[in-house]
What we know:
- By secondary structure, the protein is mainly α.
- Among the domains are: 1-75, Ankyrin repeat-containing domain (Serine Threonine Protein Phosphatase 5, Tetratricopeptide repeat), CATH 1.25.40.20; 80-210, no CATH class.
- It contains 23 helices and 4 strands.
- Strand 3 and strand 4 (161-164) form a beta hairpin.
- Helix 12 (214-224) packs antiparallel against helix 13 (229-244).
- The longest helix has 22 residues, at 404-425.
- Mean pLDDT is 91; it is low at 3-9 and 36-40.
- This is Lyase.
- InterPro entries: Ankyrin_rpt-contain_sf (IPR036770), ARM-like (IPR011989), ARM-type_fold (IPR016024).
Amino acid sequence: MRTDGHASxxxxxxxxxxARAGDKLRVQQxxxxxxxxxxxxxxxxxxxxxxxxxSFHTDIADMLLRYGADPAxxxxxxxxxxxxxxxxxxxxxxxxxxxxxxxxxxxxxELEDMRDLARTWHESGTEAELRRRTGSPxxxxxxxxxxxxxxxxxxxxxxALTVRDGxxxxxxILEERLAIRTPCxxxxxxxxxxxxxxxxxxxxAIMLSHRREQESWAAAETLxxxxxxxxxxxxxxxxxxxxxxxxxxxxxxxxxxVAALTDWSADETDPGVLAEVLYGLSSYQGxxxxxxLLAHLGHQDTGVRHAVAAGLGTSPDPGHLSGEARAALLxxxxxxxxxxxxxxxxxxxxxxxxxxxxxxxxAALLDHPDRRVQLAAVHGxxxxxxxxxxxxAQRLGPPRPGFRDEERSYLEAAWRYEWxxxxxxxx
Length: 427
């Protein structure tokens, strides 16, 4: 829980100043321009992380952690206390403050107390506990905010106090840090109290899928047959993670997940659940999985078609994708939805065997009005060693500020192809 107000201004680097101000685009631009020398350390990122945490821009703090910020190099008095973090209701903040390299800052007794505090918030309900602490009968303002890079939470403000509704996810985080084995059904219940974009879903699903045992798998199978689409959606996400976190395609629970998801895809009627089921087949393909994806090629829901486009071409031996699947990619590269076209280009790129039909279809997208589609087509052509990628990359120019890391990953394929071609033509 926090009060209105912001951290005081100070003399700091442009990156830290942008993080303190909550200017995520500027932070991204500055990160892209940073010195990648391994001898420089990550002082700037760490200072910016500190500024982001102090000003409660938790999504920026999470991004900075991914770029190498090191919480262990931040003095404890420069960060909020763990009690403040738990009271705030921000799972991202609690995760940052209990990262593995600084977890030993807290005695077990403190972690247990904070777990109990999170449970109090969770069981009382965010709104009820906020009212109890403020004693105010006024209306509560509700908004939705980004908590980490990928998840959103509800944020409630009453008077001068603001709190987020992530205490269920925080409880799960602290239980994991304390090596407490929370029952499967309790984790599922916590997830389903929120929507699929809330960190309560990801925290519970990740914890369950990492257990790699019959109890968790049985829970996923039970969810598959539920009448409530939300329960089925969580079950599909859980099965998808069972497959994703497998050490190999031959692992027991990977095999079980692929078989179950393949069968499930034939019966599921809810588009959101079906898309999640199909995404679960995207990193492991056999003939049955490919057939399951192709069965939904013409689905009216954009999310389902995107799952199909993303799944095709990602088998362990993509060069042998069937003719039917290749034809499907041609269809999907002409889809009305831009994101579906991009996903289809990505799958076509993975095949990388110079198929003229695929390269012709990607070349046709070089004049698409959306720059993202052009980038995907350039990348795909480069992977197929098609020289048309070179001029197309030159026309696109350098990566745009704020998107450099993302765009560089597409353009580098063309740059590498051009370099290889030059090497081959040298006397």
